[in-house]
Amino acid sequence: MTDKINDLLKRVAEFSPEAAAEVEEFRIKILGKKGELNALMEEFKRVAPEQKRELGQKLNALKNAATERIAALKAAMADSAALSAEGVEDMTRPGSADGIGARHPISIVKNQIVEIFSRLGYTVAEGPEIEDDHHVFSALNFPPEHPARDMQDTFFIEKNPDILLRTHTSSIQVRAMERTQPPIRIVCPGRVFRNEAISYRAHCIFHQVEGLYIDENVSFADLKQSLLYFAKEMFGEKAAIRLRPSYFPFTEPSAEMDVSCNLCGGKGCNVCKGTGWLEIMGCGMVDPNVLEANGIDSKKYSGFAFGMGVERIAMLKYGVKDLRLYFENDVRFLHQFDSAL
Ligand code: DAH
After folding, report:
1. What number is the average pLDDT over the span 131-136?
2. What would the pLDDT profile of 1-27 be if each residue is shown by its tens digit?
3. What residue owns the CA closest to ligand 1's atom 6?
4. Nearest ligand 1 atom to alpha carbon 284
5. In terms of Cα–Cα distance, which of 228, 233, 223, 232 is closest to 116?
6. Which of 3, 65, 119, 139 can bridge 174 by disulfide, Cβ–Cβ 3.0-4.6 Å?
7. Residue 307: count of CB within 10 angstroms of its CB
8. How does pLDDT run across 209-240, given as a tens digit for each residue?
9. Distance 282 CA to ligand 1 centre (A)
10. CA nearest to 169, candidates 140, 201, 149
């Protein structure tokens, strides 16, 4: 019997399974009800009394050794199963690098706009998002109670009609004119806010880039040429522009600028609603009232200004049909715009 016990002890010590199922099989074979240990226990009942003490101790040691060994093997198998479930089978393999984020399409297009105008000598100016009535309306020739204020539904802060979220980046023009005398040549990117219902084509938060150029003898021809240059750089060499008369309180004359539809090449499609043209910005000659209100001599200086929505340009450039996509942070959408800019 001693031989049997020693043999079993040896097998327990040498047992090296490859799968968890083998451990369980081994447990049943050794420690199970009809297992080898119980068979030895049966045999033990029949040994001579003088041998009982020694053999009893050996059997106990065997039982403990087998139980411990099997428990240890089970734990080791469970650990490696968890590791391989995590995909970490080989700890020596090189790790996988974290994905690099992509720049947001609105940032890409905003940077492009700024970059194009910087080639014409424009520098970037910025201003606060929480503004006062003076910088957003009054200094831009919006008289109090004038219906033109209704063109932009305003968010007011704490019922104080003087403090509001800027509805356009034209407020930065005012801040620039207050600070500096001409020549002024700036582009002003920024977030703007309007109390509008959110839909596929409107949002209560969006981005604009404003432009302002003031110097001696600045003419409408300069405005037109600068904007044509912009359109070709942004939409391609074939892009054409047209200016339609419009109204803004801060420019006179004012115009709305259209660019030829880059999706159908001007033939007419559902994006340009069959017209071949897409409206992309407002512009005009800075109203002399605005120059004077901001301390600039309108007899000596003239200037032009323009303002465009970044979301709109990005929609046209990339063929995005729903503006809300820009705000939903869905990486499947955002990763399509990887860019160096
Ligand atoms: N601020 C105007 C808007 O948000 C856009 C605009 C129109 C800006 C004409 C200008 C401009 O500088 O000359 O609707």
Report:
1. 95
2. 888 888 888 888 888 888 778 888 888
3. 307
4. 13
5. 233
6. 139
7. 22
8. 999 999 999 999 999 999 999 999 999 999 99
9. 5
10. 140
Q: Provide the pLDDT for residue 339.
A: 66
Ligand 1: which residues within 6 Å by Cβ?
Answer: 168, 170, 210, 248, 251, 282-284, 305-307
Place of tokens 């070709």: 232
SS3 content of the chain, % helix, strand, coil (to 5): 45, 20, 35
- C-alpha separations of 231 from 87, 201, 314 in Å: 51, 21, 13
Whether residue 332 contacts residue 250, with contact meaning beta carbons closer than 8 Å, is answered with: no
pLDDT digits (tens, 9 = 90+) for 253-282: 999 999 998 878 888 888 788 999 999 999
- Taking residues 123-135, report their average pLDDT: 96
Tell which one of 142, 153, 168 to mutate to probe ligand 1, the residue whose CB is within 8 A of the most ligand atoms.
168
For residues 117-135, average pLDDT: 97
- Ligand 1 center to residue 137 CA distance, Å? 12
Average pLDDT over residues 191-196: 94
Asked if residue 89 has pLDDT above 70, the reply is no
Residues 294, 79: Cα–Cα separation, whole Å? 73
- Looking up tokens 């240059």, which residue turns up? 229
Q: Residue 338 carries which side chain, given as an amino acid letter?
A: D
Q: What would the two tokens of residue 145 be?
A: 């109670």
Between the CA atoms of 171, 179, 157 and 281, what dihedral angle is there, to the nearest 10 degrees? 10
- Which stretch of DSSP H or E encloses residue 327? none
| Chain centroid to CA 138 | 36
* Residue 112: predicted pLDDT: 96
Angle between helices 36-45 and 20-31 (to 10 degrees): 10
Determine contact, residues 303/284, Cβ cutoff 8 Å. no
